[in-house]
Every structure is written in structure tokens, then in C-alpha cells.
Specification:
With 123 residues, this protein is of the alpha+beta class. The chain is built from 5 helices and 7 strands; from the N terminus they run H-E-H-H-E-E-E-E-H-E-E-H. It is 31% helix and 37% strand. The chain has a 4-stranded antiparallel sheet.
Length: 123
């Protein structure tokens, strides 16, 4: 578990599920042009976590972009997968909140499992 998550858990909150970017991010133009350093840093620093109280998604190494939403404020977690995404186990997760908040995170490893864990915890 990453340091951001460790430092921001609230009282009686425990991590239920955690995932990272899929290894596919290494095989992009950004990966080739940065000699695989940029995707390695992203995979190491970005965190996607479901706790028993909320979903926390943190991206960025030096400047952070975070989505922290209580489970009761989330309408749905959608997963979009291509054929290759289904074959290799990655997809785009889209978190839709009650106020119309919509955040998408592409190339997430085990995206379907992420949605399944959310459904288990929120019910």
C-alpha cells in the first residue's frame, strides 16, 4: 500500500482492495520516448484503493490529483474494456458520484475486480 493511502486513512478505515496501472502502460509512445521511466514512476506512485468507507484514487508524483469519495456518495463504478483489455485484464474505470461527478482512470489492472469489490463493500 502506498504512503498517501497510509497517511490519509481515517479512524476505523481499512483497505479492502488495491490496484495499480496495468503493465500495458509500458508499451506506449510515452514509455518508449522516456525509456520506460515515466510509466514506471506512474505505476509506482499512483494508487487506486477501495476501503470500507470510501474510494481513493491518487495520481501524480510531485503534484497530486486525488479523488476521495464516500461509498454512499457513489452512484456507480463503470468499467470499459476493449477486446485486448478483456484478454489481458485491464480497463478504464469511471466513478460516477451523486452530484454528477465523473472521473475516469484508464489502463487500470483488474478493473472488473475493482468494480466487483466496490459492489461487495457498498451493499
Amino acid at each position: 500500500m502506498g504512503t498517501y493511502i497510509d497517511n490519509n486513512l481515517i479512524k476505523d478505515e481499512v483497505v479492502v482492495y488495491e490496484t495499480k496501472y496495468h503493465w500495458k502502460i509500458f508499451f506506449t509512445l510515452k514509455g518508449f520516448f522516456t525509456l520506460f521511466i515515466a510509466p514506471a514512476l506512474s505505476r509506482w506512485s499512483d494508487e487506486f484503493v477501495i476501503t470500507n468507507k470510501r474510494i481513493i484514487c491518487k495520481t501524480g508524483l510531485f503534484s497530486h490529483k486525488t479523488l476521495e469519495m464516500n461509498l454512499n456518495k457513489i452512484e456507480s463504478v463503470n468499467v470499459d474494456q476493449s477486446i485486448f483489455g478483456r484478454m489481458f485484464g485491464y480497463g478504464t474505470i469511471t466513478i460516477i458520484g451523486t452530484g454528477g461527478t465523473r472521473e475516469s482512470f484508464p489502463n487500470i489492472g483488474n478493473a472488473v475486480e475493482f468494480r466487483k469489490k466496490f459492489q461487495e463493500v457498498s451493499s
